[in-house]
Amino acid sequence: MALAQSLLDDLAEKYGMYSSWATWNPANPADARIIAEHQSSLMASVVMIGLNVSRPIPNTWQNFHGADHARKLMFAFNDSPYHGAYMTDIIKGEVESKAGRLLARLRDGSIDVQKHIDAFRTEMFDVGAHEHSLFILFGNDVAQFFTGHLAAIYPNHVNCAHYSTYGKGFSDAEWVEKSWRTLEKHYEATRATFNTLEFVRNDLMRHQLQKLKEKQNAASQSRRGRRSSTAGARLSSR
Fold first, then answer.
1. Which of the residues 30, 58, 119, 236 has an alpha carbon 20 to 30 A from that of 68?
2. Is 86 helix (H, G, I), strand (E, B) or coil?
């Protein structure tokens, strides 16, 4: 059921500078105005969770939207059954790009953990999430915090690699593929217990993944070509 405009306006006022929804404009991923155009698809039966913002959010609903690693979220979910899911951070109002520093402050008590847990539960109530909603946790830091403080209340959760993870095995295509496999397995394992929203690949998703793989292969070939040219130039100069 579509969110009422009055509810969406209320959520924007309360949480719009921290949270967002899983819908993107591929021509301009940072443009969060598209959310209003897809109001009928917004839902809280799936909630995607990060730890905190790494830099200030300039406009309402703009968290998780942009041309940085958040593009992987767009590639993975914009055409998926989880399009329109609610997206938020557990720790709000703490701008920190280094997770280790934030976690240290959580451990030493300089950040009030219980305040953030209570605020998160209030937010979930406001947005309409419930105990059987699916919580997708991005990264081990989020998963550990959620498991320690919130899993007893929201038992339907699954851990995916953080979208900012990079290196071998974490290209855009590889991250998307890994995330989809994880969500497919979780859906099969929990659909009877929690009535988890179905996650299966459709033609648009398969096409998106193929494009990402082709782009990755083209980039790899370009790098090999540059290395070969450089090596040839060194040999010819001897």
1. 119
2. strand
**CATH number of the domain within which 38 lies:** 3.40.470
Is 71 within a domain? Answer: yes
Amino acid at 224: R
Total tally of structural domains belonging to the chain: 1
Between 232 and 125, the more confident residue is 125
* Residue closest to 144 by CA, chosen among 131, 159, 133, 130: 159
The answer to whether position 142 is within a domain reads yes
Residue 20 sits in which domain range?
Answer: 5-200
Is residue 194 within 8 A of residue 132, CB to CB? The reply is: yes
Q: At what angle do helices 172-194 and 203-236 cross, to 10 degrees?
A: 150
Find the Cα–Cα–Cα–Cα dihedral 180, 186, 190, 195, rounded to 10°.
Answer: -20
What's the pLDDT tens digit per position in 181-221? 999 999 999 999 999 999 999 999 999 999 999 998 887 77
Whether residue 208 lies inside any domain: the answer is: no
